[in-house]
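Notebook entry, structure prediction.
Reason for the run: the old model in the group folder had no record of what sequence produced it. Starting over properly, with the input documented here first.
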Amino acid sequence: MIPARLFKAGALLYAAMQPSSPGIGENRDRKPMNDATPPNRCRIVLIAPKDALAERIAAAFEGGDVASLILPENGMDEASFQAFAEQIVPLAQAAGIAVVIAGDSRIAGRVQADGIHVEVSKSELAETIQHFQGKMMVGVGGAKTRDDALELGEARPDYIFFGRFGYDNKPEPHPRNLSLGQWWADMIQIPCIVMAGADIASVETVAVTGAEFVALSSAVFADGIDPKAAVATANAMLDETAPRFED
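New structure, fully documented this time:
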């Protein structure tokens, strides 16, 4: 039985990652995605790609509103990943951007990240949320079907991510991620992040689904792209065309 409290009362309920948002931080005291007052529309989550330089990631922070940065391990060993995160975390947090460490909760604690991202079973997710209650937000990925997503949603993560790190190599978002994101955003209180494509204009495609967050990686950090300009362009597109959420 899926708990009724997972489902939205209306067609679109704004649930950005702020402590007062419905379905987020309920009975928990976790840090918000971004302490600044967020725009009332789909927001950007950056995902650091493999071999990304700290300087290029930091440059993206200057392009305007960014809710969060997810740092995957990207094949690095533990020491290298921790050293990389130690460079990035304070820069992001100083810019008001929450940092989520993917996979390694120990490193997340050591670098004082704001959250962790996991791809685990429902039971493991529930244990992780219980363990980090009041300390870090916990997000989850890995759902490939509606049933997968609902099962993970029963554990009440802070967000669900539709996509795969490092697979945004086509201009448009993957159709399955768009479909899952639209269905989830229409039905469920827990915010979702949908992976965009390699074309910065694909943020508009994601925003139309009603997803609270659009993830950008290669569209911002690929060779030859100015990260600051790319984020600024994405924000301008979202400001102009993204649907506004209800208060």
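Summary: The beta strands are 43-47, 68-71, 98-102, 115-118, 137-140, 159-162, 192-195, 213-216.
The old model has been moved to the deprecated folder.
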